[in-house]
Each structure stands twice: as C-alpha cells, then as structure tokens.
Amino acid sequence: MSSDATLTAPRILARCRDLVRPSLVTAIGRLHPWPGEMAAFSLGWCEVGGEPADGSFEGKGVRQALAVLCAEAAEAPGESAVAGAVAVELIHTFSLLHDDIMDGDGTRRQRETVWKAYGTGPAVLAGDALFALAVQTLAETPGPHTAAAVARLSETLSGLVRGQAEDLLFAARPWTGHQAVRTDEYRAMAELKTGTLLGCAAALGGLLGGAPAGTVAALDRAGRHLGVAFQAVDDLLGIWGDPAVTGKPVHSDLRQQKKTFPVLAALAGGGPHARELANLLNSPLILDDAGAVHAAALVEACGGRTATLAEAGHHLDAARACLRGVPLAHRAAREIEVLLGFLLHRRL
Predict the structure, then answer these.
(1) pTM over 0.85
(2) What is the pLDDT of residues 231-263, one digit of tens each?
(3) What's the CA gap between 174 and 279, in Å, rounded?
(4) DSSP assignment of 98-129, as one string?
(5) What is the pLDDT of residues 311-321, one digit of tens each?
(6) Fewer CB within 10 Å: N-end or C-end of the chain?
(7) What pLDDT score does 252 carry?
(8) DSSP reduced 3-state for 211
(9) What range defines the domain where residue 112 resides?
(10) Under 8 Å between Cβ of 231 and 62
C-alpha cells in the first residue's frame, strides 16, 4: 500500500483516470468515426480533424474517480467499477455537448466547444451517440448487478433532463418580484442537473463493488450533496474565476445574465445594494466591462459570495456526514475526503 504522501487530489484523480482510460478509449472507438472524433475532441484527446491534442484540454475526471473510489470503499478492486466510470463519463460528456448548445457557450476548457468547431447538428448527433453508448456499455457489463446499474443510470438521465429543463426555464423568469427564482429552487435544480450524476457515479461504484443497499444509498446522497457544492463553486468561478483557468472571460456569468446562486442570494438579501444590483440586471442595456465589474462588486457587497461559499461548505459537510454514516474501507474513505476538499477550494 502506498504512503499517505500520495493522498493528494491530483494524484488520486490521475490514478483513477489511468485505470479508466483504456476502457474509455475502447468505448469511444466503437462509435462511428465522425461522432467518435467529436467525442474525442470534447474529451480533450484530439484537435478538429483528429490530430492528437497535447493533453492540456482534458477534464479532471471527477465522476469516474468517484466511481472507482466508491468501489474501493466497498472493499472491492477499483477495476470492478470501470464500466460504471466509463458510463458516467460518457453521460457527462453528452450533457456538456448539449448544454453548450442550449446555453450558447462557445468556449470550454480554453478552446471551442464542439458545436462551435463542428456545427450544431453534428454536436447534437455526437451527444446522442454518447448517450446510447453509455447505456450500452453498462448493459453489456457482466455480473449480478447489471440490471440495477442500468436502472440507476436511467433514473439519473431523467434527473438530468429535469434539472436542465428547470435551468432553461429560470432564464425566462424575472430577477425580482413574486416570480423571481428563489435560492431553494436553484438548489433543487443544482441537485438534479449536477448532483444526480455525481450521486450516480458514487452509487454505481458501490453497487458494482458489491456494497449493501444502505451503503449504496448513502453514497448516492453524498454525491448529490457534492453536486450542489460543486455547482456553487462553479457559480463563484463564473463571476470571479481566473480566465486562464475557466477558459471564459472574467464575470462571464454576469455578462450573460445567468441566474446563479451568488446573484440570487445577493438579491434575496435586500437593502440598497440589492436594489441597485436589481436595477442593473433589469436594464435593457448589455453589461459592458465597467458594468460587469460594478455588478460583481454589488453581488459581493450584498453577501452573495459569502453565502455561496457557505452553501458549498454546508453541502460538503452533509456529504461527509453521509459517508461517515456507513462502513467504508479506510484508505478509500481518506481519498474521497481529500477529493471533497479539493473540489471546494479549486482556484477560488
């Protein structure tokens, strides 16, 4: 067994990616070459045209790592969760392809999104291919837990769709008044849109690792709480994140007038700063550089940033409580704990 010196988030993520990567490559290789290239581009493996990329555009692999670690937490080898890890990574990639189209986002991880690089129709097709491949990958996995795993993935897909529907509907609602989006509504959306897949990753790891039903349920709840925390941190990065890290302009979410937790919490606080922020957001004029800087300062003055950090911390504590309530292998539990802390503090 390796020493505690290896218990750093980058090393944990790299170990899990290295374990899952061969099977993920094999799965992508089953696709038609054109959507397969788009999938590889989205994963950061290649450039447009299929030339290998330098690796700097690849994601961290949080969901696949959760699947592997939760299998190990059930005292099973990480290999037992590889099919589940591949399935959730494929679903995550599918969701990003379609979300970028719906949100009109032209960049991700510091380069063009798939729809920008290949076109909207091809990107939709690639997303559909990844969706089908994820279900097929899990359905073809031998073992006594296949049916339960596919059922859980299907339930997760329904949750993702519901969460995305709510997120899209939020965009049409006003910033203020009785129809304004409340923070509890946003929290429920985040659990569906982000938390269900993280919960699925954790639960699939436990399920494929042979964990009892109570442990699988606790892993799922922990992942859902992690998802809300993860979304809260993403919302902070969408306003105050370093463009060199996020790949998006500073204050990008404010410029796009996205209804994110920091802004909703700031408006809910009331007071003169909140009223000024509401007037700025309700203006028909597009925020310029100075307007975006001023809006970000108002969000912070209203306590939006502090409230969002508290939201993330609360849900990470809830995730830890779920994990500590069931028996888990010590080493894997430690690695999951390290990963949780890393996700809260990433480049804020």
Answers:
(1) yes
(2) 999 999 989 987 766 666 778 889 888 999 999
(3) 12
(4) HHHHHHT--EETTEE-HHHHH-HHHHHHHHHH
(5) 999 999 999 99
(6) N
(7) 83
(8) coil
(9) 4-345
(10) no
- Give the three-state DSSP class for 112: strand
Cα distance from N-terminal residue to C-terminal residue, the chain:
33
Note the pLDDT tens digit of each residue in 36-63.
999 999 999 999 999 999 988 888 999 9
DSSP 46: B
Pick from 204, 198, 205, 216: nearest CA to 70: 205
Pair 201, 223: CB distance under 8 Å: yes
Q: Cβ–Cβ contacts within 10 Å for residue 210, how many?
A: 16
Largest CA distance in the chain: 61
> Which token pair is 269?
């606080």
| 215-221 CB contacts, 8 Å cutoff, 24+ apart | 215/74, 215/326, 215/327, 215/328, 218/322, 218/323, 218/325, 218/326, 219/70, 219/73, 219/322, 219/323, 219/326, 221/319, 221/322
Q: From CA 257, how far away is CA 103, in angstroms rounded? A: 11
Please tell me the total number of residues recorded for the chain in this structure: 348
| Residue appearing with tokens 């998006």 | 248
Domain count, the chain: 1
| SS3 at position 163 | helix
